[in-house]
Write a structure and sequence with these properties.
Layout: E1 4-8, H1 13-24, E2 28-33, H2 36-46, E3 50-54, H3 60-67, E4 72-75, H4 84-102, E5 106-110, H5 133-146, E6 152-156, E7 159-161, H6 169-179, E8 182-186, E9 193-197, H7 198-209, E10 217-220, E11 226-227, H8 229-240, E12 245-249, H9 251-257, H10 262-267, H11 283-288, H12 297-317
Parallel strand pairs: 1-2, 1-4, 2-3, 4-5, 5-6, 6-10, 7-9, 8-12
Antiparallel strand pairs: 9-11
Helix pairs in contact: 1-7, 3-4, 4-5, 8-12
Length: 318
């Protein structure tokens, strides 16, 4: 039973949502991130069950201090693509070393990159065919976790959307349509893809981590089905009460932008996910743990747009 948790990367999208979900389960939660200012501001939203700890995951001493009183350690740290190698490996090894010394279970937030190309909805047992540099790196990290000797949960999620998800594809599009009628949408707008309302993912992972029998395994946590860019634009149009349209951003455009933008340069190899999307099969979770929280796209998109509208109005008032 988890009485106290540590969330590393608490000011990022999933880290914020996880801290919120754990606190709402009345679990004392140590929120760890580099920015003390952001942690302090978010603590007001998380409430009394949250404790803040400012530190650097590249420094093992900071991690040791942060998780010393925790019953479980959630790794939700993410960093820009261009810094992945070798930083992701260093951070993971630092955390695993501390978990091994302190005998702490480890819960890892992962994406879908290690699955590679999949013709059917991906199950945890599906063959992994990572064909990109980032997919291969993610698979290497997974193998490190499995052979670490630390009790672990590895959870795969599709692309996030929702409040506090600043570095996601949909957030990029939503920010534009708040201010104008058109927004750039990465990939074709008529292809069905899977997104996950981030609060649903956090609730599902918090529940999973509370089950002793879930450790030592890999788990998929999918979204509420699939949706096209055109359908997202229609929902946004109705909610914002204006005609919204998306302009597709194709591979060649990303490559061209990447000449000047290192983040976009790194994103080019992941464009396959917007052409032949990977969809997650969540039947294992549903059969063994229970229903996965699934906010309908219409509701989740409306809540996300309201959050962005509120922030935009606050910024304009300053």
């Amino acid at each position: 039973m988890i009485k106290k948790a540590a969330v590393l990367g608490a000011t990022g999208g999933m880290g914020y949502a996880l801290t919120e979900a754990l606190c709402r389960k009345n679990i004392k939660t140590i929120a760890f991130a580099r920015s003390e200012e952001n942690l302090f501001n978010f603590k007001k939203e998380w409430g009394p069950y949250a404790e803040i700890f400012a530190g650097d995951a590249m420094n093992p001493i900071d991690i040791e201090k942060a998780v010393s009183e925790a019953d479980a350690v959630f790794h939700a740290i993410n960093i820009p693509y261009q810094n992945w190698d070798p930083a992701l490996s260093i951070i993971l090894e630092n955390i695993l070393d501390v978990c091994r010394k302190q005998k702490k279970p480890f819960i890892y937030v992962d994406n879908i990159y290690s699955y590679g190309l999949q013709s059917l909805p991906a199950k945890e047992t599906s063959s992994r065919n990572p064909h990109t540099k980032k997919g291969k790196l993610r698979q290497t990290l997974i193998e490190s976790i499995k052979h670490s000797g630390v009790p672990y949960i590895i959870a795969h999620f599709p692309d996030f959307y929702g409040p506090h998800t600043g570095n996601t594809l949909l957030h990029y599009t939503f920010e534009q349509i708040i201010k104008k009628h058109t927004g750039l949408f990465v990939g074709k707008t008529n292809i069905t893809r899977e997104f996950l309302y981030i609060k649903d993912g956090a609730k599902a992972l918090a529940e999973l981590a509370s089950k002793e029998e879930a450790y030592g395994e890999v788990w998929n946590i999918p979204g509420a089905g699939t949706i096209t860019g055109e359908e997202i634009a229609n929902i946004a149009s109705k909610h914002l009460k204006k005609q919204v349209s998306f302009k597709p951003v194709h591979r060649w455009m990303i490559r061209a932008i990447g000449i000047f933008d290192p983040l976009m340069r790194e994103f080019t190899e992941m464009m396959y996910l917007n052409e032949t999307p990977v969809i997650l099969d969540g039947s294992k979770y549903e059969e063994r743990i229970g229903p996965i929280p699934k906010t309908a796209y219409e509701d989740g998109i409306k809540e996300t747009l309201d959050y962005l509208l509120n922030n935009h109005e606050k910024s304009a008032a300053i």
